[in-house]
Amino acid sequence: MIQLRNIRKVYQTGFNRLEVLKGIDLDIQAGEFASIMGSSGSGKSTLLNIIGILDEYDKGDYHLDGTLIKELSQTAAAQYRNRFIGFVFQSFNLLPFKTALDNVALPLYYQKIERQKRQKMALEYLDMVGLADWAEHLPTQLSGGQQQRVAIARALITQPKVILADEPTGALDTKTSYEVMQLFKKVNQEGITVIIVTHEKDISDMTRRIIRLRDGMIEPESESGQIPATPSSAS
Amino acid sequence: MFNRDTWQEILTTIRRHKLRTVLTALGVFWGIFMLVILLGAGRGLENGVEYEFRDEAANTVWVRRGITSLPYNGLPKGRQVKFTNEDYDLLAEQFEGIEYLTGRYFLSGNTTVTYARKNLSFTIRAVHPDCRFIERNILQNGRYLNPTDIRECRKVAVIGDIVRKDLFGEQEAVGQEIRIGNIVYQVVGTFTDTGGDNEMRVIYIPISTAQKVYTGTNEVHQLMFATYDMELDEILNLQENIRATFARRHQFDPEDRKALYIFGTAEEFLKLNSLFASIRAFVWFVGLGSILSGVIGVSNIMLIIVKDRTREIGIRKALGATPFSIVSMVLQEAILITGLAGYLGLLAGVGAIRLLESVSVEYFRNPQVGLGVGLTATLVLVLAGALAGFWPALQAARINPIEAMRGL
Fold it and tell me: What is the ipTM of this complex?
């Protein structure tokens, strides 16, 4: 589903040249449930932006579902995002002036689906995350967990191939975090590839594959559950 | 692009940002409102001044006699210059360019006007027939004075509409006899005048009759004429020629401005025209200023709108909004607000102008504003708003969603 070959990314700020990704090779198959871990500065956000077609890369190739994602126009990038990818964010990022239902329906607006059908589908997805009764509430009237579930429904409504979640539990307490992870698990069981960026070990432990990033490189992988010892002498 | 969904999106965001919307709208509203008021008021002033001067033909020249203030050819100063019928003939025969000419003779002594048992006082002017065109009298009934009246010194009178009403009421006036002082005149015509009530409180009688009946001289007190359509410098030239001729005839120094007064409306009209031009320039200057401040206001608000909505735009982009949809969303919102506010400003301005219309002040009349001007101004504001919004909108469309959502 996702195929990264020797992805490099450099940020140039003034005279400083910061190499964030130093040649990433990564394959994620359809239906995987993976997490990307790494400390801040490890490049995981940049990697996520590239996978999510929110940022460009300097070198290498990125294939998403067999399509080469490279040097796309903004419009084409937006269309791929809309069609392939569902985003879930740490801070939920619901539009505060729209009801839960309208928030969930928003991606369909950009697919030019007519309003009635949008609303009907949005209600189905809200029901799926257990929030059908909250459809007419504004985000501020919902708890953090509920907001994140609305956000997940919004990510799912376009029936994307991949769900990208950036620290989806970062703003939630442990119990709610686990509920949200259960939801991701359920989504994954329906065949959607789920990639979660996190720095919480207990969250990544709930995924089936852990990808570790360090200084712009992917560390050798091991199966989930067996965390490789971190080299203490790494410089 | 302009489907129901788009509008729904826009209306939702407008409702969400009431204060911001109201502020933007207010700037545009006020700009248009002030422009319309200014243009209307300027126009009203122009109409008012024109109205005050509407009574006389635009190219009327008065020739008035005076008293010499300079000695001339051995003659002392302080002599009264006197006009006679010969001066009238001189003007009529020797000067090109005079279209209508009349002398005037002012009656002295008892000029009480009597009909039946009514004794009233009116202005009596003894004139030549051309007076009708110079004063712009509009004949209502009967006829005006004619050359035969002058030649035969007939005792006939043409009366203004108010004179008619006061003396005769609903009765037919033409053919009746009235007394002016002790002389009986037959009313041969009635007229109205656009110059206001005072011009309709006038009785005109033949100048020759007045000269004969009241003093027995051929004296003329004043001369008035209207020129053909001439350029101002031609009229001034004519006036100077008349002055020189009269100076020779009446033995006074041509430089003696107090011996003879020649006064033409053309000069006045020229002054008025330049006054109007300044008023118009001022109105446009202030009006464009208020439009400009409206434009700047709109631009500022557009910057704020985009800044304010960075996060929202980031979210929308992550969800698949194309740059075009972002730009058009921001622009349509701007156009809707400025357009609506501009339209309301136009309506309010026109309404205020209507109110001003009922105000009756001298030199202010019929304020009006061309709808085209108002609409153009509104369009300019809307376009300016759109243009001002375009750049920030474009910037917004380039926002990196992740950075935008991390909340800046």
Answer: 0.82
